[in-house]
Amino acid sequence: MTYKQEKITPYNNTQEKGEQVEQMFDNIAHSYDKLNHRLSWNIDKAWRKMALNRLKPFKPQRILDVATGTGDFAIQAATMLSPKLLVGADISEGMMNIGRQKVETLGLGDTITFSKEDCMDLSFPEASFDAVIAAFGIRNFQNLDKGLEEMHRVLTKGGHLCIVELTTPVHFPMRQLFKIYSHTILPLYGRMISGDKTAYSYLTATIEAFPQGEMMVGILKKAGFAEASFKRFTLGICTMYFATK
Q1: Whole-prediction pTM value?
Q2: pLDDT band of 191, cuts 50, 70, 90
Q3: Residue ranges in the chain assigned as alpha helix (H)
């Protein structure tokens, strides 16, 4: 099945989406952290923390952070969950290079490593990880079903998937306020700081197009997960999906 956000590309209709996403994140890597935190009023850190608290009772020792970007979720997970191994996987070396610098500065190099990966075709063997996590990245997948099937494949039996993703609020007035914000302030400020004319308009479009709530739970079950649920944060601006293999 093809989902709406898979048809949305950052730049053109000639290159594959995956290639364009890699190029886009390489382009905005230098400003991504600053923009991410400012545009979410730093609430993104709290969202990640709430998601990791859901995972904490299971004490995963081998964790894969898919679409790791600059490594913020990986670093929070390493700090909160104390795993033996945590791998951050991403298509963008530009983003991961910033993550590598942060990990080195924090002295977490013995726990966190980074790997350039196509998240639709991961290089890891089956049942390699106790938990797979992802924050604000899966809506950029060229093929969502394939990406989720790969996450399922690399998980151990009984392992957990924890996803945090930006979503469209469902209730008045937050739905209307978020639409105004995401169509005016977010792309304008993103363009000013990142220097990329279309990246933040693209990111807004994918938020609106991405399946959410009960629909996303159904997609997770179709990918092979035995159990799946969701919880909305901050009046629906962000949603956590939690699934078990």
Answers
A1: 0.95
A2: confident
A3: 17-39, 43-55, 72-81, 93-106, 144-154, 174-183, 185-194, 199-209, 214-222
